[in-house]
Amino acid sequence: MNRRELLRSLGLSAGALALVPNDVLAQLVKTQAMQKSAFGKDFLWGVATAAYQIEGAHNIDGKGPNIWDKFSHTKGKIKHAQTGDVSCDFYHSYAADLDILKSLNMDVFRFSTSWSRILPEGTGQVNQKGIDFYHRVIDKCLENGIQPWPTLYHWDLPQALQDKGGWMNRDVINWFTEYSNLLTKTYGDKVKNWMVLNEPMAFSGLGYLLGYHAPGIRGIKHFAAAAHHTAMCQAEGGRIIRSNVKDANIGTTFSCSYIMPWKSEDRDHIAVKRWDAFINRFYIEPALGMGYPLADLPFLKKIEKFIQPGDMEKLKFDFDFIGVQNYTREVAKYMWYIPFMKGLEVPPKKRGVTEVTEMNWEVYPEGIYEIIKQFAAYKGVKKIIVTENGCAFPDFVMNDSVHDTNRVNFYQRYLEQVLRAKNDGVNLGGYFSWTLLDNFEWSEGYTPRFGLVHVDFETQKRTIKDSGLWFREFLK
Ligand code: IFM
Question: Fewer Cβ close by (within 10 Å): the C or N end of the chain?
Answer without folding.
Answer: C
